[in-house]
Amino acid sequence: MNALSAEELEARLRDIGARRYHRLHPFHKLLHGGACSKGQVQAWALNRYYYQAMIPIKDASLIARCDDPATRREWRSRLVDHDGTREGEGGIARWLKLTDGLDLDRDYVVSLRGLLPGTRFAVDAYVHFVREKALLEAIASSLTELFSPAIIGERMEGMLKNYDFVTAETFAYFSQRPPQAERDSRFALDYVKQHARTPEAQQSVLAALEFKCDVLWAMLDALYHAYVAPKEVPPGAFVPKD
Amino acid sequence: MNALSAEELEARLRDIGARRYHRLHPFHKLLHGGACSKGQVQAWALNRYYYQAMIPIKDASLIARCDDPATRREWRSRLVDHDGTREGEGGIARWLKLTDGLDLDRDYVVSLRGLLPGTRFAVDAYVHFVREKALLEAIASSLTELFSPAIIGERMEGMLKNYDFVTAETFAYFSQRPPQAERDSRFALDYVKQHARTPEAQQSVLAALEFKCDVLWAMLDALYHAYVAPKEVPPGAFVPKD
To answer: Which of A86, A137, B25, B235 can pair with B220 through a Cys bridge, CB separation 3.0 to 4.6 Å?
Structure first.
């Protein structure tokens, strides 16, 4: 097996996104197309909160494995984006504005009591992956951000149009994310193209992105099973009122 | 065993510093008193570089274990202090100005090839402690910073007076540290006083600070053995020219 050129590697990574990113999941089609009940949108936001809350922990875990101050500095901006610089700022706080806007009790959301086990296991698998795999694979697993600006555009447009319980203010999280995701994914893509030179390293990078797509996909599988069909909510998880 | 009051706990922590902080180590007395050769000062700076280089990795490891965004934000300032906001800034870069000023080759310092095994094991033990113990213990282990402003004052005065190969510019690292150490140790001390309420938790906090004092002490034991008496440099470690 020969090594791919940097351009071929990028094309292979983008192809994974085209085939496996959660934008293609049936739950996202329902969500963006206006076919979800308010309870289903609540369940999505509540479960996604755990992903948001664990992202800085994932990113700090990556920084903690990184010998190079320049890479640590670059990755540190992700901590700033998610945790903010003071109380009430940053991505996690903005996500809680979304769950507030959906009339979910904030203490209940933050307590994680209503979380689907499938969400928890998928998110925790991501954190463990970043802690345990090679640094190159940890960085590559962030590359789903290459595909997120498009999905965020679709989501904002579709959800604002289709749900009267969603407002632009509630959606402040999404208006901030695309430029951050573009900056971060550009850095990670350049890093991967520069550091994955052997066939083995390139395969590990492709597998890392597939893994991450699996994480996001599994989160939506769990939501679909519990709240769309067969609507089997696991014991203890959030039960919508409608 | 009854729980200590917050004030009693603080007094016990300060007592550990008074008895076990590395300011009391024979090597520090030689270093600050002007009794070291240039080669011994080089060996100290070279070995201490590894500690400096691992501090952001230790701090990111702590952030990675921390569920609370406010504590993560507070601890993030330590990453900023050590890694800086751009190339050439921050505590690690300033430490390399010190090793430059001591005429050590920068590539050699950064390569860690000349490091004493005793330094490596002590520093790595600190990182592992922070990764593996309870968050409260990880935070408590940073409390040697309560005692560092005093030692830094002594060090700057003593070394600038006693060594003609040390300049104030070379010592830029130390002029920056005291206000950072005061801010950080105040936060950590408040955290520990607030969170260590049971006798068991308080004992774990006291043990964590003793552990950290042991780390710093063991680093100087290794230096003393290799470069003062019996001057037995382990195979592969830095050999001074004078």
So the answer is: B25
